[in-house]
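Dear all,

This email documents one entry for the complex benchmark we are building for the journal club exercise. For each entry we list the sequence lines for every component of the assembly. Then comes the predicted three-dimensional structure of the complex as a token string, followed by one or two observations. Please use this as the template for your own entries, and keep the labels exactly as they appear.
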Amino acid sequence: MSPDKRDVLYGSLGLMVLKTLEALGPLHGYRIARRIEQISGNQLALNQGTLYPALLKLEQAGWITSTWTESESGRRVKAYALTRAGRRQLRVEEAAWQHATGIVARFFAIQEES
Amino acid sequence: VTKLRVLLARLRGIGRSSRRERELRREIDAHLDEAADEYVRQGFSAEEARRTARRDFGGVATTEEDYRDQAGLLWLDHLRGDVRHAARALRRARGFSIVVLIVLAMGTGAVTSVFALLNSVVLRPLPFPGGDRLVVITHDAAGLNLQNAGLSGGLFLYYAKQPIFDAAGFYTERVLNLRAPEGGTERVHVTLAGVGFFRALGASAAEGRLFTEDDGRPGFLNTRSWTVPILLSHRFWVERFGADPSVVGRVLLLNENRRVVVGILPEWFTFPRADTQIWMLSEIPGQTASIGGGLDLNSVALLKQGVTAVDAQNELARALPGIVGAYRDATPEKLAELRLTPRVTPLKSALVGDVAHVLWTVFAGMAFLLVIATANAASLFAGRADGRRREIAVRQALGASRRRLARLFFTEALLLTSTAAAAGLLVARVFLWVVITRTPIELPRITEIELNGIDVLFAVGVAALMAVFYGALSVRRQREVSANGLLRDRWTAGPRASRWGRDPFVILQVALALSLLVGSVLMLKTYRTLSQTTLGFSAESVLTMEVSIPSRKAGQHIQLYQQLVDRIRLLPGVVDAAAASFAPLTASEHLFPTHAGAAPIPFKFFTPGYFQTMKSAVVSGAGLAPGESILQPSPVLVSAALARRLFPDTNPIGQPIRRLEEDGSPVEMTKDVVPPFTIAGIVENVRETTLRDDLMETVYIPLIEPAIELSIVPTNMSLIVRTRVPPLTVAAAAKDAIVAFDPTLSVGRVRTMESIVRSARAREAFVGSLLMAAALVSVFLGAVGIYGSVAYVVRQRTREIGIRLALGASRVDVFRMVVGGSLAAIAIGSSVGLLIALAASRMLRALLFGVEPGDPVSLAAATGSLLAAGCMAAFLAARHAVRIQPVRAMREE
């Protein structure tokens, strides 16, 4: 379980969480997991459990906050919400992601031409 | 920034594990329930829904583990586990743990104790804001044959003007009688000082104010119209006046003169001595100051930023000739006559003086002890590592990594050494408490002695170093073992290296123990020499007490002291009594320039009957017993050593001896030249200053008519009372008698002569007993170490010995084989130890007396006892080898 592998995974998962929270507002864990699966067109087989360490990490970084509330079905759940720092971070990561995918895309383009 | 925030959040997370786990549990449960609900809505049965939700979620345990990992700091959790584990392992090996703890606690305790003392007295900066910029100025006056003399008024004023100082102050000390309206008379330590003194030391008043420039100005000498201001020490203010703030402004009587309290100094300010009670304003009148006439002012100065003591000393030496013309006697001739060399010394080294050397010496001794203890416990650690071969092998087989094992060893060692360090700090506390309350030696800065953070850090550092050492040792040991083929080595004695592997530690222990032993034997010899020196008086059953008279009664000193002595003599239990200007060995001295030779000679006043009371032998001539009639005019007695030097060929009795003023002119009294003294008798040599004093030249001046000039009249004398009962039992009655005789007299420093003699060799006793204790402990540890190493060899080679015996080896052969290695180690260790001792005893040289650092008798005695102890330990351990039964030995295991 080497840390860098996990970081890569968490890195993109974190980005997805932030984006989900930005789009839909405060959500609890299960809803976040479901949203991510839905948005990815159920193509991403997410081990839902891995979400929780990722949420904790985002919270420790100060990008999201959590409060105990009630779900639609009346259960006590922890709802996560994006903070202002989280919004800023999302902008940064989004740009970085676009930049990175842009570069990779250009490489694919070269291959097609040759 | 984010990383830092995460780290902080994780640190916060360390303490809250149980709450966090609960919350996570609830969150996961809610998640699973929500998921199951959704599946039920999709038409799954409750049971199926639940199972599917769980499958989607993945491993709950893994999630918890990862979550925990993210929440706290993993290694810290591991550390906690390691500590728990190590503690458990150590509890199982109780014998090992206890012995190691005792040995290491002794080592760290000894070294931390002395370090704490060294730190408080020598290393820690002075409490003054000026710190290292504070210096004292002294003089060597080659013309007067004086070293480390003080300053005269003119010299001080001239130096204080030099631009290298930010501030400079002078001071002198007195013992005066204080009379407060509400109480009786008591003797107080008074320091006379000016404004610059407090400015240099950076003091500020705790109550009231300090002296100001204006204090001195309006008619300073005209005390009729103006009251001289004084300051009180914080302690004196609290103890004598109950910390009453209204003391400021009150008038007190010092030697029957009115003095007004203007302020209280803060608690930390205890300069020049811990028990200074009063500071009285004093200034040097510029117009009348001179550069000759008493180099008796002390000084303290604050160097300008960036100026070193050496710079200042050079600068003063360069500036000194410029003083010509500034004061009335400042002529080139005078300078040529005095031949002054200014000396600038940092205040701290001036204060601490040679105590630094004493403490460093003892510290070195204790450091040796620590190394010995460390080496001793190292054998125990090595033994334990060997004893755990199986356990370790099993652990490795079960997948424990080398790193994991190393961490275990290190944690175990750290647990032991830090416990030992904690015990050592406790020992240090007790030690400091003893030093402060019992004051085995006179220490400067005694009020500042305490255990502080640096000492704790020191102990922790020692513990950490030892832990690293033992951890590394155990790891190496274990590697050797595993390299040697773990579980299969059932036949051979184990790793080859371990046969002799422990001997380096034995060699080290023997070597250091021997050098400690040599040092302590040398100190013991010094102490014995000092105990056996002829004092020149009998100290048994003698009480001394200082009695001073107010200076306005100085004219009647002869009658006062004589009548007092006569009264004391009549008290029950008293055999005899007399008075002298100081008791022997109390480090007081009056110097007496004479026409005989360049060096001034110490002198001492006494009342008739003094030598009879002290039981000092009168060698020839008159002894000035009470009532003895003397033919010579102005008779004095001289010590035998002085008589021999001054009059080697003629009979000294009847010879004149003339006092001179410090500038060499004849002493005058009411315009007449005082006639010379006549030597009336010769007394045996008395050690007046120190036990090591071998000059013993003294002039004894009786307090009889005609009186000596008023300026040198003693107003503070020591009563010498010889008793037939234990001396201190007479003290109360004597005090009462003195007060009844004249209430303006005051009594101070009641001591027995025996305690004075004891404290005269207290330093040697202190160093000697500490070194001796350390030496005994280390010889014991060394012997135990040797025993252990032989016993180890026997245990490891029992089978081999059995075979040898079965094949016909004699028991003597076996014996030789078993102890051979250890005896070699002892021999090597002793030779190394002798070399170390020779080098280290140079450090002791300044403390030794009557014995040379390389004294062959001491070296032989120390080596002999160490060899005896070592060989005995080896033989005791080897007895087991000889008793081995071959058949049983081979059947074992």
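Observations: Residues 486-501 of chain B have pLDDT under 50 and may be disordered. The interface with chain A takes residues 2, 5-6, 9-10, 23-24, 26-28, 30-31, 33-35, 37-38, 56-60, 62-63, 66-67, 69-71 of chain B (CB under 8 Å).
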